[in-house]
User: Which sequence fits this backbone?
């Protein structure tokens, strides 16, 4: 398995997520609009941004864990059963810690 390729993919995604999360944080730090109608819209938008931020944080944690598995030499092995994770699954979800079988069971 070409772990160097996955490391590059994961690091690129980590950098992209980091930029997005900083942008979300900056958007959420903007002062609110004094107009009641606009403030209600902003609150809805902030809820969406917060959801995106939480999802991004979870993915970022998964990426960091995958990079740690590369460093430890365990990348590509299922964290539950120890069997190899298929190349197709890693191509779709490079930070996957579980094989398809274990993921379905979870």
Assistant:
């Amino acid at each position: 398995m070409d772990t160097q390729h996955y490391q590059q993919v994961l690091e690129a995604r980590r950098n992209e997520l980091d930029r997005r999360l900083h942008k979300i944080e900056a958007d959420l730090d903007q002062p609110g609009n004094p107009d009641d109608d606009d403030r209600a819209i902003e609150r809805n938008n902030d809820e969406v941004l917060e959801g995106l931020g939480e999802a991004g944080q979870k993915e970022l944690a998964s990426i960091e864990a995958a990079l740690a598995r590369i460093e430890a030499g365990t990348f590509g092995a299922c964290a539950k059963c120890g069997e190899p994770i298929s190349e197709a699954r890693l191509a779709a979800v490079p930070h996957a810690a579980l094989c398809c079988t274990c993921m379905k069971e979870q």
Q: What stands out?
A: The chain has four helices and no strands. Residues 3-76 form a domain with the Four Helix Bundle (Hemerythrin (Met), subunit A) fold (CATH 1.20.120.910). The mean pLDDT is 90.
